[in-house]
Amino acid sequence: MDDKAAVLQVHEMCFSYPERPLWAHWSGTVGQGATLVLGGDGSGKTTLLQLLAGDVLVDSGTLTLAGVALHEDTPAYRQQVFWQDPRSSALDALSVQQWWDTLPARYSRWDATALAAHIAGFALQPHLDKALYQLSAGTRRKVLMAAALASGATLTLIDEPVAGLDRASVRYLQQALADAAAQPGRALVVAHYEALDGVPWAQVIELPDEA
């Protein structure tokens, strides 16, 4: 991909855990549309999303999102990113609706009409007044993904999207991802162990399994 067409540019990224190096001088680009991060358990998919979000900082190297370098202006970089770790308990005390109500102020392209469609598509209406800690793992993921897709964020990061989802929700997700990927100037990065049918993947980043 031509770097000028890239939404996100990663240059010479290095990152390692004490027990395991993950990336050594890795460079790549992410353009508009949907990018699949493909890998099995332990391959580093979630860690890569955390690095791209600026949630975990690289050991060295640069990440530049829509012209904003993470190391130069971290708040402005993160403002362009939607990322919620489905394993985090940080939102547990909030109801679904309370959390969603905080998001339009952060995301300038927040789409309330899209959110309403996702509520219907994921059958979330009965859960809006529940606290997130009360939700099943599958319903929690649907809540997070509904917000991610409605956010309009320049870089939208989604981890293991179908975990705990029923078949109808998986079918809806495939179409919703395809629709979001078609939005101009928007890059979706989805980490999963296999490609989802019906999603027009513009790029696949394949991670080696843990040795």
Automatic annotation (TrEMBL):
InterPro entries: ABC_transporter-like_ATP-bd (IPR003439), P-loop_NTPase (IPR027417). GO terms for molecular function: ATP binding; ATP hydrolysis activity. Keywords: ATP-binding, Nucleotide-binding. This is ABC transporter. Signal peptide: none annotated. PROSITE patterns: ABC_TRANSPORTER_2. Pfam families: ABC_tran.
